[in-house]
Amino acid sequence: MTADRTHGPSDGRPEAPERETARRGSAWHEDDEFWIAAGSAIFQPARWEEAAEQSEVLPGLLGLRPGAHILDLGCGPGRYAIPLAGQGYRVTAVDSTAAFVEEGRRRAEAAGVEVEFVQADMRRFARPEAFDATINMLTSFGYFEDPEDDRLVVDNIRASLVDGGAFLIDTYGKEVIARIFQARDWEERNGELWLYERRVDAAWSHMVNRWIRVTDEGRTEFHLSHRLFSATELERLMLEGGFSSARSYGDLAGEPYDENASRLVVVGRK
Question: Which is higher by pLDDT, 32 or 270?
């Protein structure tokens, strides 16, 4: 779906007042208002079903034994943490957004599974040698303005893994984005219209986004950006962070990272 324009009300009602929330640089990801508003678009029922299916193949890619302890970093409301716990894995799920942590706890209880949900910033969360694997799903890495913060996260994860433990990052690599890039698109969900504008910035180092949410109550605008990585750059980040190996895949099933790749999935091994 693509569109490069919006339409105002056509039923004779007065237009709702406009309100803008601008979050640039490193601040946008700390804005709970953005995450709560965007949740209706990001966490659709189909996304939960997709996550449940992907959770079936994740342990194989990570080489996990039954009952292993998994850290879901940047977990949101638990799309991966809950089905992994349902498979019998011990799961700790960390997110900085309080509303997602609370929703995750409610969903886990309703599903009859045990997940430890923790509200914390990934730059400051570490538990020495506590986990067999860490997963970071759906482009939840590279939010910070300072690249040293990305390195700090990698350091924290390495310290938190047991020897031989795995760190998986699932994102869109530069190579995939170059093939599928759309400057604009839109979607309508639950009575809300979401308009998206994107541009590649700073020599392919960042994706800069403008998201506009239109409801009966008005219009809200969000500005956000995240760092872009190629497969080589993300592998290098892990290796420079002390991981003994790093390998890229084109999806969670372990297909090659080539011209047909749908995602960039990098697995580092401590």
Answer: 270
